[in-house]
Amino acid sequence: MKFKDEERFNDGLLEFGRTETVRNAEKKIIGERFILNGSLFFNYTTIRQVDFDFYGTHDKTVDLKVKTFYVKGIEESHKVLIDEVLYDITDTDPTTDRRYLFWYLQRVGEFEGV
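That's the Phage head-tail adaptor, putative, SPP1 family sequence above. Prediction below.
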């Protein structure tokens, strides 16, 4: 069923998956590879003070908050790639009707994969 007030996500494309270490024949690390599990279009959203207090613990910070359609199977062990920048998932928060999902992301750095 299509909702009449369907939100459009046109700020960018979010790719989620995991990273894998790439080694050469001598077993030395030569880089990382991003294993894609899926991709979603998203909108940037404002990080409120409540978000900082709740999701930004002492060892984690919230650098970016985005909103996508709800999708099952997202784990905090997944990595997120947006415009060649790699993020860790601090937490996710679905809406009560399970239509949308808020992602709280911590920047890791530029991704220079193999």
